[in-house]
């Protein structure tokens, strides 16, 4: 076979294995940054976040207009088939963060990338957290996320002082699912709600610029959002009063193999493609029609 035939074959064979072609950025879309997120909040524009774990889904989510992509340790369940996020390692997180970052950079994407510090990677000391945050940032993250309040304040301060943007995570914190006794709504009684309010303010004071509130009553999440000026709340099962929303990708694509959590909408219903489902999600979050407090919240 001649070289000519070979080169013709390679020209006509498309992009093997879904190789990501360089795409032009969404017209008029500025790269998402901390100042841009603050501007969105000030203008009352909701922040749309989705999880992604690989290059292709990340590039498609970006092209669909998703503002922030979370490389969540939920990959332990959806990619690795685990029962919880507890088994996810730093090595796993670096691998998936680098994959997502490549997808975004190669498609000239704009999304803000948040990567989870996994179980056991920040509890020993602020120094341990910094070392592991550096690995995620070097893999392409723009921000790291860690779970818990109170004891995490010193760590958040330490990271932020050294130039690492931090997203905190309160309410249902999946890494401590065994201590919490299951995936349950948090902050239901007044003392638990008050503790969440105090911890949120402390995390803002420490410099966290984003806060995921997971499975907390809608009224509590809305009041925490009002109290936090510099820290943008991102809700999941926390009602529609937060500054933004996040869902696990596989859940919103209807690919949850177990019982779909109450706070999820299957955006594949009525969509003709995965990108279409993601666009519908972004539009619903921005319009405030998702989540619907009557259906998706407590
Ligand atoms: O790991 C993850 O995907 C998360 C979201 C559920 C917020 O932390």
TrEMBL record:
Its cofactor is Mg(2+). The active site is at 214 (proton acceptor). One of its GO terms (biological process) is pantothenate biosynthetic process. It is found in: Cytoplasm. GO terms for molecular function: 3-methyl-2-oxobutanoate hydroxymethyltransferase activity; magnesium ion binding; methyltransferase activity. Residues 1-32 are annotated as: Disordered. It catalyses: (6R)-5,10-methylene-5,6,7,8-tetrahydrofolate + 3-methyl-2-oxobutanoate + H2O = 2-dehydropantoate + (6S)-5,6,7,8-tetrahydrofolate. This is 3-methyl-2-oxobutanoate hydroxymethyltransferase. The gene is panB.
């Amino acid at each position: 076979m001649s070289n000519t035939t070979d080169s013709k074959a390679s020209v006509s064979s498309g992009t093997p294995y879904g190789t990501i072609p360089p795409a032009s950025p969404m017209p008029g879309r500025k790269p998402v940054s901390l100042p841009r997120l603050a501007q969105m909040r000030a203008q009352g524009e909701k922040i749309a976040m989705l999880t992604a774990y690989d290059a292709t889904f990340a590039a498609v989510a970006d092209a669909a207009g998703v503002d922030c992509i979370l490389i969540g340790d939920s990959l332990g369940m959806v990619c690795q088939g685990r029962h919880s996020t507890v088994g996810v390692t730093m090595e796993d997180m670096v691998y998936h963060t680098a994959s997502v970052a490549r997808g975004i950079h190669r498609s000239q994407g704009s999304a803000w990338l948040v990567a989870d510090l996994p179980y056991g990677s920040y509890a020993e000391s602020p120094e341990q957290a910094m070392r592991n945050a550096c690995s995620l940032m070097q893999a392409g993250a723009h921000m790291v996320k860690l779970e818990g309040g109170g004891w995490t304040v010193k760590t958040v301060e330490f990271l932020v002082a050294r130039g690492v943007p931090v997203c905190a995570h309160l309410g249902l914190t999946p890494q401590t699912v065994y201590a919490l006794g299951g995936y349950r709504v948090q902050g239901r009684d007044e003392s638990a709600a008050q503790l969440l309010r105090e911890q949120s303010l402390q995390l803002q004071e420490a410099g966290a610029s984003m806060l995921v509130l997971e499975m907390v009553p809608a009224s509590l999440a809305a009041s925490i959002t009002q109290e936090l000026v510099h820290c943008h709340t991102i809700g999941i099962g926390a009602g529609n009063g937060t500054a933004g929303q996040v869902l696990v990708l596989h859940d919103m694509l209807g690919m949850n193999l177990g019982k779909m959590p109450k706070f999820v909408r299957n955006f594949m219903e009525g969509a003709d493609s995965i990108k279409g489902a993601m666009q519908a999600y972004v539009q619903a979050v921005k319009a405030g029609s998702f989540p619907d407090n009557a259906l998706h919240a407590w």
